Amino acid sequence: MRNKLLIVFIAALTVAILFTVPFCIYRSRYVSFAGTPIEMRKKNHPRLYLDEAGISLLRDAANGSHSNIWLRVRSFVDERIMDSPPVMLEGDFRPVGELIPYASLCYLVSGEEKYLQFAKRFMKAIAGQDHRGDDKDIEAAQLLYGLAVGYDWLYGDLTGEERDTIRNKLAVQAARMRRACGIRYAPLNNHKTVTLCSLGTAALALYPDVPGAKEWLKFVNGRMNAIMEYCGQDGYWSEGIGYWSYTVEYMLKYFVAADELIGSEFLKHPWLRNAVDCPLYLSLPRAAWQRDNMFLNFSDSPRFCWYGPQYHLYKLASISRRAEAQWLAGEIMQSGFDREEAGWLAMLWHDPGLKACPPGNMPGTKFFSDWDVAVMRSGWHSNETICSFICSPLGGHQMDNRRQLLYPGSGHCHPDANSFMIFGAG
Predict the structure, then answer these.
(1) Cα 44 to Cα 139: distance, rounded to the nearest angstrom
(2) CB environment 115-133: b (16+ within 10 A), e (fewer)
(3) Which of 9, 38, 42, 200 would suit a FRET pair with 242, their CA atoms being 20 to 30 Å apart?
(4) Other C-beta atoms lying within 10 Å of the C-beta of residue 283
(5) Closest Cα partner for 426 from 366, 375, 363, 378?
(6) Which of 283, 281, 273 is CA-nearest to residue 252?
(7) Contact 39, 208 (CB under 8 A)
(8) Among candidates 200, 230, 232, which has minimal Cα distance to 216?
(9) How many other CB atoms are found less than 10 A from the CB of residue 386?
C-alpha cells in the first residue's frame, strides 16, 4: 500500500514539475503598470478594444466601409433576440457567453434598447447562478470572457446593483480560473491558451476594482510569454487547423487588449506575424471549398476552422500587412462557409485600407521549419494540386535550442511523423 501511495505521489509531483517549472524562468517578463494606459483609464469604461472615440468611429464604419459586416452581425443577433438564457449552465455552454459581446456591440453601434436588454438578460442570468460541471475549463473561460466584455462595454448602462452583481460574479469565476490554469493542461494544449487569455481579459476589465486583478494579469502575461516561446516562430499550430483557429482567436482577444492597455508586446511575436501562413498554405483551392472541407489537416481536427477564421485573418493581415491574408479573409466571408462564433470581431479588426491581393505571387512551396511540415502546391484557385508532408520530432524543432528539456505537451497533436496528404487536380 505504501509503495502504491509513493508511486502516485511521485507521478503527481512529476506532472506538477513538467507543467509548472518551464514557466518559472519568465517571471522577469511580468508587467509593470506604471505609466500604462490602464492606469490612466482605470476609472473609465469601456476600455476593452474600444473607448468612446472608438465607438464613434465604429458607428461611422457601420454606415460605410464595414456596412456588409455590420449587416451580418446585426442579423446574427436579430435571429436570436427572443432567446432566453438557460435556467441551468450545464454541458457545453460556450455559446451562451458568445452572445453577450454580439448584443453589446449591436447596442453600442445602433443605440437600440432591444440589444441592451438582450445583453442584460443573459448577463444577469449568468451572474445569478453557479456554474455546473467543470467551471475551470474552456466552457467557463468563454463565459468569463463574454461576461467581462459585456460588463466593460455596458458599464455606463448598468445600474449600480447590476454592476456590483456582475463584477462579483466575474471576480469569483476569475479566482477559480486562476487556481486551475496554473497547473492544468500542457502549454501547447489549446485549453491552456483559452483559459489564460479569458482570465487575462477579465482582469483587464476588472482592474483595479477587484484586488486580485493585477496579480492575474502578471500571472497570465508570464504564462503566455512562455507559451509563445514554445510555439516557435513559423506560425504552424501542432494540433491542426481547427485548433489553430480556436487558439489564435483567444490569443488575439487578449493580446490586442493587453498590448494596448498594459504595454505588452505580444502582437510583435514572430509566430503570430507568421500565423497567416498556416491557413494560406493549408487551404484547398478556392473552387473546391465545401463547408466542412476547406483545409488540409494533420493532427486532431476537422478540415475546417471551428472559429472564423475570417476575423482572425483580418487582424493578422493588419498586423503583418499581408494582402494575401486579407484576400483569404474576404473569400471565406463571401463563401458563407465561415463560423460566426465571434463574428463581431470583424467589425473591430477589418482594415479597409489594406488592399486584398490573391496569392498568385506567393511561392508554391512552404516549409514550416519548427514542425517539419512541407507544403507544395500549384495554385490557390481552381484545379490545382497540393501535396503536404509532416515529419517533426516530439515538441517540434523549436525545442532544440532550449536548455529546458521538458516536453511542453500539445494535447491534440498526433504521433504522425511521415504522414502525407495529396489533394489532386481540384
Answers:
(1) 29
(2) bbebbbbbbbebbeeebee
(3) 200
(4) 22
(5) 378
(6) 273
(7) no
(8) 200
(9) 22
Place of cell 491557413: 279
> In this structure, which amino acid lies at residue 125?
A
Average pLDDT over residues 209-236: 94
CA distance 385 to 377: 6
Kindly tell me the burial class for residue 161, based on how many C-beta atoms sit within 10 Å of its own C-beta (0-12, 13-18, 19 or more).
exposed
**Structure confidence at residue 8 (pLDDT):** 44
156: left (phi over 0), alpha (psi -120 to 50) or beta: alpha
Question: What is the torsion angle, in degrees rounded to the nearest 10, for the CA atoms of residue 416, residue 419, residue 424 and residue 426?
Answer: 20
Q: Which residues are bridge partners to 283 per DSSP?
A: 295
What's residue 400's pLDDT?
64
List all residues 6 or more positions away from 351 whose beta carbon is below 8 Å from its beta carbon: 314, 317, 318, 326
Identify the pLDDT of residue 404: 54
Backbone conformation region of residue 237, classed left if phi is above 0, alpha if psi is from -120 to 50, else beta: beta
Average pLDDT over residues 136-141: 88
Burial class (CB in 10 A: 0-12, 13-18, 19+), 82: exposed
C-alpha cell at 55: 465607438
End-to-end CA distance of the chain: 62
Residue 290 three-state SS = strand
371 residue type, one letter: W
